[in-house]
Amino acid sequence: MSEKTIDIQDIVKPARLTDDKTGQVYVLDFSRESIVFAERNKFKLEDAIEYPVTGMRDLFYYAFRKNHRNISREKTDKLIEKWGGGIPEELVKRLIQLYQQALASNSIVVDEDAAKNSGLTLEL
Questions:
Q1: Of 4, 28, 75, 85, which cross-links 63 as Cys (Cβ 3.0–4.6 Å)?
Q2: What percentage of the chain has pLDDT greater than the value 70?
Q3: What is the C-alpha separation between 66 and 18, in angstroms, rounded?
Q4: Is residue 92 part of a domain?
Q5: What value, to the nearest 5°, has the Cα angle with vertex 102 and ends 112 and 72?
Q6: Which class for 55: exposed (0-12), middle (13-18), buried (19 or more C-beta within 10 A)?
Q7: What is the average per-residue pLDDT within 16-44?
Q8: Phi first, then psi: what are they for 96, rounded to 5°?
Q9: Can you give the residue range of the structural domain that contains 67?
Q10: How many domains does the chain have?
Q11: Which class for 23: exposed (0-12), middle (13-18), buried (19 or more C-beta within 10 A)?
C-alpha cells in the first residue's frame, strides 16, 4: 500500500440542494466522467472565474452530471433563477473545491500498487 494517504478531513463533501417546492434533493459533485463531459464542452474552471455570469452557470450545470445526469441545462438555469439569477457564494466556493478535488484525484495516480499492477511499464 502506498505511504501517501488522503486525510478524511481533507475530502470535500458534496453539496446537497433541496427544492423546497417539490422536495427533490440534488447531490452536486464531480466525477471523472463529469469532468470529461465538461472539458469536451470546452469548460475551463478559469473561465468560470473570469466570466462569472456564464461560467458559474456552466459549473453549476456540470455539478449535476455525476448524480443527476438527465437534468437539463434549462432545469439548472431555472434553479438559479429561484436565487434571483445568481448562485450563492458559499455554493460557488464548494463547487470549485469539488471540481478541483475530482480533477486532482482522477488525473494523478496516488496508489502506487495500482500503477504497479496496471500491466504497463513506465521508464523515466
A1: 28
A2: 79
A3: 17
A4: yes
A5: 145
A6: middle
A7: 94
A8: -65, -45
A9: 12-109
A10: 1
A11: exposed
**79 CB neighbour count, 10 Å cutoff:** 17
As a whole number of Å, the CA-based R_g of the chain is 17
* Grid cell listed for 54: 456564464
Asked if 67 and 29 touch (Cβ cutoff 8 Å), the reply is yes
For 58-117, write each residue's pLDDT tens digit: 999 999 999 999 999 999 999 999 999 999 999 999 999 999 999 888 665 555 666 666
Residue 16 falls within a domain, yes or no? yes
